[in-house]
Structures are given as C-alpha cells and as structure tokens.
C-alpha cells in the first residue's frame, strides 16, 4: 500500500502513524510543505492520504503562511475522496477534511492541551474499526478548533472539552481531532515550539501548568 503524509511544520511529527506504515512495509511518500515539498498532483499517487496538524487554520491564507495552501490541500482531499482512497486527518487535517466536504471549521468549546480521555459514542461503540479502542481512552490533545460536520458525518468519539474528537465522513474518510500519533519525539517537538502558547493559555480548564507538566501529561505511543 502507498501511504502519503502531508506534514505542515518541522516540529510536527508523523509519530505512531509512521511506525505503523513502516512496520507493515508500506511505501511512504511525503509532502513536507514547510520545506517547500509539493502536494501530489492527484490521488493516483497514493492509496492512503494522511494530513497532519499544525498551528494553521483551514482559513489561513497564503499571505499569512506562504507555504500552507489550504485550498490546494482541500482540493487534494476532494480528489482522494472521489477516488475512494483512504483519507485520515489529524487535528488541522480533520478540519481540512470537513472544509473540503463543505462543513466549516468550528471553535471547540474548550482549548485542550494534554492527556485527557475520549469517550466513544454509541456509533463509535458499534463501529468495526473503532470499537476496539475501548472507552474511555486517554489520548493526546493540542487544539483550539474542531472539524465541521457534514450531513453524512458521524461522530464516533467525544471528550469533556470537545464534542467532535473522531468523525467519520465516509466509508474511507476519518477525522481525528485528538492526537493518537504522539510519540516521545512528537511531544517534545511540540513543547519546545509552544512555550508562549502554553504560557498564554494558563488558567484554562484543559491546559497543563507548564513545560514539565505538559511533558508529563501528554501521552507518548511507543
């Protein structure tokens, strides 16, 4: 299987998704957009598209972030959906899926950074690919927003701070607002580049108290 990763920042890591693909011997390709690497020209280039997170929003313009082209990524997602490719979006990636399919990104009720449980919905508990996760399941979080919902979307998991943690948009299309890809490297990279964000967010319900607490509270998948 050919897996293509779209990564938006040098401090964002493919983490456990990369290990999953490598362990299975899949062919891996990359669009490290922060380094100027191009997106695939079309969905013929891959069997599975994984779009990762970042500090951007689906509404971030090229003027605001020259290397991030939200419209181009949404176009690629639409091509992949039409071609019946597997599409996974994480954090920003999940919001891009929603926008690509016509559902506007929304602000989450709570900003979440840390290590908090998600709970499977009734649909999640019945889902053949999700039910085995168990419920509740403690996972990583680092977000302000959450993906929009199309008429066909099904919420498979939620948390106390965010009602849209895992969303199914189609048979092969899933958005994860939560971070199941976190490894030690991924967590450390985020913390190193987010000291001001952590300081500015102090006092909110789902925010660690500082760098040390952030490292302790963010899960790492080995």
TrEMBL record:
The UniProt record lists the Glutamine amidotransferase domain at 42-184
Q: Which UniProt keywords apply?
A: Glutamine amidotransferase, Ligase, Transferase
What GO molecular function terms would the record report? Answer: GMP synthase (glutamine-hydrolyzing) activity; transferase activity
Cellular component terms, GO, for this chain's entry? Answer: cytosol
Could you confirm whether the keyword Ligase appears in this record? yes
Might you give the EC number(s) for this enzyme? 6.3.5.2
Pfam families documented for this protein: GATase
Q: Which InterPro entries match?
A: ChyE-like, Class_I_gatase-like, GATASE
PANTHER family noted in UniProt: GLUTAMINE AMIDOTRANSFERASE YLR126C-RELATED (PTHR42695)
Annotated protein name in UniProt: Glutamine amidotransferase
> Origin organism of this chain?
Salmonella enterica I
């Amino acid at each position: 299987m050919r897996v293509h990763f779209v990564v938006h920042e040098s401090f964002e890591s493919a983490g456990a998704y990369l290990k999953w693909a490598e362990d299975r011997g899949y062919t891996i390709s990359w669009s490290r957009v922060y380094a100027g690497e191009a997106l695939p020209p079309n969905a013929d280039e891959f069997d599975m598209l994984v779009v990762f997170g970042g500090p951007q929003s689906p509404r971030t313009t090229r003027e605001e972030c020259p290397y991030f082209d939200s419209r181009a990524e949404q176009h690629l997602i639409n091509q992949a959906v039409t071609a019946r490719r597997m599409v996974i979006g994480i954090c920003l990636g999940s919001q891009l899926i929603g926008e690509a399919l016509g559902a506007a990104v929304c602000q989450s009720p709570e900003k979440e950074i840390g290590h908090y449980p998600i709970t499977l919905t009734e649909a999640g508990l019945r889902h053949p690919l999700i039910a085995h996760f168990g419920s509740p399941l403690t996972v990583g979080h680092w977000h302000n927003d959450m993906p929009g919902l199309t008429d066909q979307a099904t919420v498979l998991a939620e948390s106390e701070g965010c009602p849209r943690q895992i969303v199914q948009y189609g048979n092969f299309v899933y958005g994860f607002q939560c971070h199941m890809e976190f490894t030690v490297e991924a967590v450390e990279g985020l913390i190193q580049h987010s000291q001001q964000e952590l300081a500015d967010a102090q006092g909110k319900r789902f925010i660690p108290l500082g760098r040390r607490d952030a490292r302790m509270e963010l899960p790492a998948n080995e």
